[in-house]
Amino acid sequence: MSSTDTPSTSDPITSSSDPKDTAPVLEERQNEETKQEKDEKKPPPLKGAEFRVYNRLAERMDVFHAHFRTAWNALWAAACAGNGSKSKSSSRGGRSIINDGLAFVAQLEVHHNIEETYIFPILARRMPEFQDDGKGGKKAAELLRQHREIHEGMEGMRKYLRSCRDGEQDLDMATLKSQMENWGTVLWTHLDQEVATLGAENMRKYWTVEEIRRIPM
């Protein structure tokens, strides 16, 4: 047999007749080709003015969310500092915590109502991250499901604080902390996730620069 009839040993695919030996090599090559195709299709990073336009909604949203984070942290610090103590709801300290808590819940509720009425419906035209199933069910986007879970926690906390404000019970810091723990995790997850979803690199997938400029916020 001449040398031209002998398979080359330099190629692991042609040098083995066992399909089990060649399968990993073929898979690796296919993965490399797929990665190369994705890299070729990936648009160049946004820069300068174009990035700022696409990132505008995320920056605006983060301003609102920073306020809610600050308000939450102040309430949480008060609840933790109480060490399970009770405070007369009529005392200056008790009234301050109750009023701050009720104001926080009311402001967050208004913020969500504005989002769901004016902003999310526009974004949902193209972005699955903001689409609702119309029935308030499990098929709604995760951000909307988070809203509903947050609202449940808000209502529980509002009901408790109102009962303290109206003198039905004393303000108990351990109870306040427990109320906040019920929905704190989903709230903070939502605050971060919503801003990330509105980030420039994600928004460019769905909107042009001119369209982004027309979205209200």
TrEMBL record:
Q: Which branch of life, at top level? A: Eukaryota
Under Gene3D superfamilies, the record lists: nmb1532 protein domain like
Q: Which residues form the Hemerythrin-like domain?
A: 58-194
Stretches the record annotates as Disordered:
1-47
- What's one Pfam family here? Hemerythrin
Bias kind Low complexity: ranges: 1-17
- Entries under InterPro entries matching the protein: Dimeric_xanthone_biosynth (IPR053206), Hemerythrin-like (IPR012312)
Q: Where is the composition biased (Basic and acidic residues)?
A: 18-43
PANTHER family in UniProt: EXPRESSED PROTEIN (PTHR38048), HEMERYTHRIN-LIKE DOMAIN-CONTAINING PROTEIN (PTHR38048:SF1)
Q: What is this protein identified as?
A: Hemerythrin-like domain-containing protein
Q: Which organism is it from?
A: Daldinia eschscholtzii
